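Following up on my earlier thread - several people asked me to post the actual chain instead of describing it. Fair enough. Here it is, all 272 residues.
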Amino acid sequence: MAKDLPNLVIPNELKPKDARFGSGPSKIRVTQLAALVAANPGYLGTSHRQKTVRDVVKNLREGLTNLFQLPDGYEVIIGNGGTTAFWDAAIFGLIKENAQFLSFGEFTNKFATAAKNAPFLKNIDIIKAEPGDAPEFVPNEIFDAYATAHNETSTAVMQRVKRPNAKGLHLVDATSAAGGALVDPKEFDVYYFAPQKSFGSDGGFFTALLSPDAIARIEEIKETDRWQPPFLDLSIALENSRLQQTYNTPALATIHMFENQVAWFNEQGGLA
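Reply from S.P.:
Thanks for posting it. Predicted structure:
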């Protein structure tokens, strides 16, 4: 059969000038790197609890609050490990017992499967759709959380961020959408992402925009007898973020490039 297939050739004018995988990490602006170099040695090579670093973290959190026009009471938390680590942290610290997941690609399915395998959760409902499509929530009063993605990285399916018509936290994976798509903060409780796409930085670092209800849930679960690894304890991430730092040592270059990109976005007029 193979010998009967036509010899398809992509015309050179259609090939990207930059041949890297187009759906992965983004290009880095030259001015981002220049700003990082200019910050050395007072920034690089020092403790993440020093003022020079904490000032950048403070600017990053305030810049994200401005970029996403977060309402009063919403907070920005940061931590190490990227989106994959945040899935585990959310399983420990945001879902009480029962949750519904929309699965329409590799990454939404990973989060849903991880929750399904958590022995301390009771009822995990996974609604699936074939690649190229996306399902919708089927709200039920038993669910205390609903999880989906703004944009499914593996299939490029984009969903409008809108709360399900039910009580329960609305968790939105935004790694490949944040910074590149409009979103109304009132429609989510948790909008979480890593900075290696729109924000032109490196991975291994998570950011989560939390509503007051999400913060209350973190505090509520912390008061229970559920054991949480400190690295994945969102109450610790919240406490440290309020101190303009992470729980453990982060990649300082990542934070600096992230902050620089957020500031640049805001200078250009923000998400609009």
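The CA atoms of residues 43 and 150 lie 34 Å apart. That should answer part of your original question.
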